[in-house]
Amino acid sequence: MLANEWIQQAAQCQREGRAFALVTVLRVQAPTSSKPGDKALVLVDGSIHGWIGGGCAQPAVLRTVRQALADGRARTVRISPSAEGSERDLGDVLEFGMACQSGGALELFVDPVLPDPLLAVFGNTPLARALVALAPHLGLRLAWIAPGLKDGESDGVQRLGKDVPDFVRERLPACDFAVVATQGQRDLQALRGALALQPRRLWFVASARKAGVLRESLIAGGADRAAVEAIIAPAGTPIQAHTPQEIALSVLAAVVAARRSGQASAAPQQAPTAPASAQATAIAASGCGS
Question: What is the pLDDT of residues 181-211, one digit of tens each?
Fold first, then answer.
């Protein structure tokens, strides 16, 4: 095992969009096999890349890593000689007992590194292109789905040339958010493709009237009623937007709000009735008044 193996592993996890925790040794009380500054990258499956000491501390570290990856909060952990299985929450430090013959003690910092959320944009319209241009600057990974696009990845954007549900689901096994910005071009097909990804939030840039008609069509076609009713339309934060770039900013503001407020991890709910300004924004973006 290489002490700096975690560096290469971290780069690979970042490329693959996998969560991990970076565990750093802060303090030690001899005898221990680690020293301050030792580091390891730890995955949710329990695999450890790097060096933070022997096996006595690993159960407590793995348990803490799983907690940190679940809620995104960093933690300081103290592992000291005590009754096996004892645990105390000291506010800013979690203390675990370790019945290890060496008698040493460790204090470690567990820092979760979560992948950026994946946003799927459906459509090859001025609005969709504005979303694709702006989203990466907000810390969002991006998939762009529209007929005619060449499959592959460039500039960090994954492109899919079909919006067929099976095709999309096979290539995007997980999706955090989705925006359908088709503006009258294959609206229903794109909505089906977006629903197949089961995103935590799905926005449809259209008027409430148009969205209602398409919801009925989706449900009649066998789509899950709860998922269809959770589609947010009109989409976006009311900022009196008019141009595609302004409307993209409005929609992405809603995405950021969902991400930062913790709503992204909650079960989708039906969108509330949008104020008139938001409806006007959506109607302008859809390219029609229906």
Answer: 999 999 999 999 999 999 999 999 999 999 9
Contacts for 140 with CB less than 8 Å, ≥ 6 apart: 116, 117, 118, 119, 177, 252, 255
- pLDDT tens figures, 141-176: 999 999 989 988 888 899 999 999 999 999 987 789
Contact 241, 134 (CB under 8 A): no
**Contacts for 143 with CB less than 8 Å, ≥ 6 apart:** 118, 119, 120, 121, 157, 158, 159, 160, 172, 175
> How far apart are the C-alpha atoms of 74 and 110, rounded to whole Å?
6
Q: Which domains can be identified in the chain, with CATH numbers?
A: 5-113 (no CATH), 118-286 (3.40.50.720)
Instruction: Look at residues 198, 204, 69 and name the one whose alpha carbon lies nearest to residue 127.
Output: 204
The mean pLDDT of 25-39, rounded to a whole number, is 84
DSSP type of residue 37: T
Number of H helices, E strands in the chain: 9, 13
Q: Buried b / exposed e across 126-145, counting CB within 10 Å, b at 16+? A: bbbbbbbebbeebebbbbbb
Characterize 45-55 residue by residue with b for buried, 16 or more Cβ atoms within 10 angstroms of its Cβ, and e for exposed.
Answer: eeebbbbbbee
Percent of the chain whose pLDDT exceeds 70: 83
Q: How far is CA 287 from CA 191, 217, 247, in A?
A: 17, 20, 12
Cis peptide before 234 (omega within 30 of 0): yes
Q: Where are the alpha helices (DSSP H) in the chain?
A: 5-16, 58-71, 126-134, 165-171, 187-196, 208-220, 225-229, 244-261, 276-286
pTM assigned to the model: 0.70
Nearest Cα to Cα of residue 33 among 122, 101, 120: 101
